[in-house]
Each structure stands twice: as structure tokens, then as C-alpha cells.
Predict the structure.
Amino acid sequence: MQKNSDRIVVIDQILSDLEKLKISGFDNEYALNENIVFFHAAKNFFYYFMWLVTHVPKIDADRLLELTDLDFPKWKEELHLSLIEMSRRKFPGLIKPLCDYLVSYVLKKHPLFILDIGSGSMEIERQVISRLINHGIKNKPIFIGLDNSPTACRIAKKNLSQLGEIIEIHELINWDDVFALGINDTNQKFKTVLINNDLSFLSKCGDKQLDLIFYSKFKHHLPADIKKELEDITGKKAKIVAEYDDYKSFHFLVPQSMGAWRYPVLMNGAIFSRLRCPSKGELATNVKEEEYLKFFYKIKSYLKIINDKF
């Protein structure tokens, strides 16, 4: 377990980076200041608890950014590695609902192309592939990860390689190469594709060429206009879309903080993410006819499926 003294060293390094960014004239001063206040409070549990009680209700979530939304490759790597560790724990099962859906979907529908937007470390794919191997699946889908962070793509490659010889990892830059992997496929190995690019790359894909697009704890990072763009373009490019994220729950911030306490970067991401997410009421009110929404109360997350049923 990370010692408290080690936590303080990490927090001081983060604060130093944030102060340097502030001096450089970063345009979102509000988000920068909120991160600085957060990490100062996080040095001590009493002060952190007081921050939760007195300061959090005043935060403007629409102006908030997480530490890893800022340009700090070191802290992005720290977050991805911490998330891998947390996501592999059976309790609380942070990504289990999405993995369960993906395994069931693959076994029932036999898709060929599955795209993960904002794919990060691709720990979801690693877990899904591991479970599909145990099922002895013959019709293996091709998993595609799209992420604009070179750090994330590098970590994903290393993470997926832990599956050994059962997997092929490709790094491609255009859709023709991606779809060529599905031609004359002998299905001997699981194929994964890493694409280091942003959402605009998806516009070059043909309509409904992808069987499924999903994104996990990604949408809340986006401004309102880009969220709408994400919804529009994924609905055009895929037959089915799956959205997995948290919903806002203030009383869940305390256990969430305790679970991530020894990982300051992860705790920042977890708490600020939760504050930026929609409420359960907002989600339930805005469900469309072609959508199916399910809540997971123990982890305060939701899974929304468009054009499919559980």
C-alpha cells in the first residue's frame, strides 16, 4: 500500500505542475484553481472531508476539468495504470456491467467490428477477450480502440499483450486497413486495432459499417456540442451503440474517496468525473424510444443501449 508520505510527494508534484500551468496562462483558470484546491485538501483527510461538505456543493461542474484533461502525460499514465488495477478488482466491479453486456452481445450476435471510443488502456477488451476465450468462441470479433492520447495507446498495447499468443495487436491509420483485417479471416486469433486519433476520424468510416460502438466513462469529459456530435456520428456509423458512465451521486463521494485515497490522481478523476456526470433523474427523463437504460446502484453507474435490448 502506498504510504501517506508517498501520497504527499505525489500531490506536491501535481501542485507544482498545476502552478506552472497557471503561470503559463492556461485559459480555463476556474478548472485549474479547482484542481489546486482539491489537491491541497487531499493532503489531509479532515481537510478533504471539509472540502467535500463545504466546497463541493459550490462547484460549477460545467466548468470543471479533471487533472488528466490537462496536458500532463505523466499523470495520464498514472491514471491509466491505477484504473487498470482498480478495474481488475472483483469488488466493486467498476466495469463488470459493461463487460457482461459485451460478452453476451458477442455470443448472441457474432459481430465482426466493435469500436471503443476513448479506449484508454483497453482493460475492458482484455477482460472481455479473456471471458470469450473461456467460452471457446469461434467467430471472433475485431476490437478497435480509438483514443487521441499516445500515452493511452502505448499502455493499451502493453496491457493487451498480456493475453499472449491468442491476440494480434495492430496499429493502423485508416479504415480500409481496419476492414481488411476482417476479410478471409481464419479466426485463429483475436485481432485488436489501436488508432491514435480523435472523434473526427470516425467520420471517414462508412455508415453502419461497425456492428457496435461503445464508450466507457468518456462522454462526461466532452462539452455539450461535442456530446451531441458523438451521439449523431455513432448512431450513423454503428448498428448498436452502448454508453457506459456514472451518474451524479453526492453521498457516494465519501466511499469513492476512501476507495481511491492512496491514488491521488485516480481520486481526482473519480470525484471530478462524478460531479460532471448527469443525475439519475436527468438520464431517466431523457430516454428515447430506441434506447434502453439500466442503472447499477451499487456503483452508481448506468448503461444505455441504443437500437438493442439486453
